[in-house]
Amino acid sequence: VLEVIGGAGAIWGGAEVFTLRTANNLPLWRWISVGVGIFCILRFCIQNLPQQQDLGDTIGPAGPWSLPLAARLRAVCDHPFHYFVRAKPPPVDNKD
Length: 96
Hints:
The protein has about 100 residues and is mostly helical. Helix content is about 65%, strand content about 0%.
């Protein structure tokens, strides 16, 4: 979310700081910001789409909790969407 809104907001705010945005051209800069926001959301989606080579490193054979600590941390940093959204909860031992 921050990557997408931050990209559009950077254009809007940058135009304000450099006094490019005036009362006469507000709609133009609004559309430029929307365009950059659309580009940023497409970039975010492409970056976070599951890819075949990511499955073993990110999810692990029995979910992300089966990965060693270093690989788990790398998976969280490299692909947080895969790790938190697609991951299964850790297995529960039912020893009753």
